[in-house]
Amino acid sequence: MFSRLTDRINAALERHLPEQRLFLKSDQGMRFVRLKPGTQATIILGGALFVGWTAIVTSIFLIDTISAGSARDQAEREQLAYRTRLNQMSEQRDANLAAAHQAQSRFAVAMQEVSDMQSRLLASEERRRELETAVDVIQTTLRRTMSERDAAREEAEQYRAEIESETGESFSAASRQRDLEATLEMLTAALSDAALERDGASAAEHEAYAMVDQLQFEADLARERNQRIFSQIEDAVAMSMEPLQDMFDATGLPTDQILRQVREGYSGQGGPLMPITMSTRGEAPDEISVRANEVLGALDELNVYRMAAQQIPLSIPVNGGFRYTSGFGYRTDPINGGRRMHSGTDFAGSSGTPIVATAEGTVVFAGRQSGYGNVIEIRHAFGVMTRYAHLSRIRVSEGERVSRGERIGDMGSTGRSTGTHLHYEVHVDDEPVNPMTFIRAGQDVF
User: Fold this and answer.
1) Of 279 and 399, the one with more pLDDT
2) CA angle 187-192-194, nearest 5°?
3) What pTM was computed for the model?
């Protein structure tokens, strides 16, 4: 039956593909191979399929090659744009640091000037009080002297009347006359001295009042200058405080609790800042002292923010060129496929790129872990931990204290990795969070 079907097919194809013979010549003679129409059709169909398959495969290969080239160009453009943005952020950070240093220098100069003016003001106030006391003493002495002069005059008049009406012995009257004259001379000299002293006291009083007016004028000038200085300082503190507050709000961490922990941790002998003046007489402090103490309180708050920021991982862990290759969240596993949770952010770069600590803390692990390869774990304050994985080299050891920006290792591809990159994680209270939340929060400050 199969033979009859083959014969029918060959008969149908005979008109288009007549039977062909392929002659093969050799030393033993000549032979030929008969190619029936069905065989020829099979060969032609197979050749056509092969050519078509080759064309399709070649097209797919060319399309993939073109797509790969476009993807590489796009990746290079994105990397160039990111490097440009990173350079701009670095320049802005340097400018912010320079402005902060200048503001700190200006504040130190202003505080020194405020302290000097406060000292001069207190000295002038003390001198004014001394002059007022001296004027009061001089006035009291002058009134007492004038009272004594009037009493002496009355007594002299009384003695003169008694002498005139005296009818006793002439020797007694003459003696009393001499005594009265001596008393009058003494009183006259005393009155002259009192008059001179009064004139001197009056001149001193006028001079004292003039000096008090001058001191009051200088105090008003100093108060106005202090107002301008404090206004500039308060504006600078407010401008410095606002980005720090926004940064802490963006991280989602409990800001009040963090600041309270920082204050408790830095509440040793002396304290961070002390008030300028305190009254020892139970009096209310003056306006300048109150305002100065408010500025010092704001600076203390700013200092607490700064100390807290040093202990939170807000900077980028790679010190060199890189590009983001995978973010935080669920993704397709690059090795086994399937949906997997990616608990960090990947930064791809060249092998050996410096890896730095993103905040100050203590190294709690430095070694090899399954999957992570060479890994470093750093424990920071406020229940925060950072992890740096797939390193080619570890440059720190367990128990070591590190600072922000300090180099702790080199980028590599150890462990479960498809290429050279850094796997960076941030954990808060042992729960992984998106590291980019902290990096974006700190990009305008650090």
Assistant:
1) 399
2) 90
3) 0.46
- Rg of the chain in Å (alpha carbons): 51
Residues 253-291: b if buried by 16+ CB within 10 A, e if exposed: bebeebbebbbeeeeeeeebeeebeeeeeeeeeeebbeb
- Does the pLDDT value for residue 208 go beyond 80? no
Axis crossing angle, helix 255-265 with helix 170-251, rounded to the nearest 10: 130
- Give the three-state DSSP class for 89: helix
Pick from 17-31, 239-253, 399-413, 427-441: least confident: 239-253
Please, which contacts does 259-262 make with residues 24 or more away whose CB atoms are closer than 8 Å?
A: 259/301, 259/304, 259/305, 259/308, 261/381, 261/382, 262/304, 262/307, 262/308
If you search the block for the tokens 């440009």, which residue do you land on? 84
- The helix or strand, by DSSP H or E, that contains position 339, with its residue range, turns out to be strand 339-342
Sign of the torsion angle spanned by Cα atoms 54, 59, 61, 62: positive
Residue 14, pLDDT above cutoff 90: no
Which residue do the tokens 């367990």 mark? Answer: 398
State mean pLDDT over 70-78.
75
Distance in angstroms (rounded) separating the CA atoms of residues 405 and 408: 9
pLDDT at residue number 240: 60
Q: Which residues pair with 26 in a beta bridge?
A: 29
Specify the amino acid at residue 39: T
C-alpha span between 398 and 403 (Å, rounded): 14
Contact 380, 388 (CB under 8 A): no
Query: What is the 3-class SS of 130-146, one letter each residue?
Result: HHHHHHHHHHHHHHHHH
User: Is 417 within 8 Å of 441 (Cβ atoms)?
Assistant: no
Which residues sit opposite 373 in a β-bridge?
Answer: 369
Amino acid at 139: Q
Name 43's Cβ contacts closer than 8 Å, sequence gap at least 6: 35
> Which residue intervals of 165-284 are DSSP H helices?
170-251, 255-265
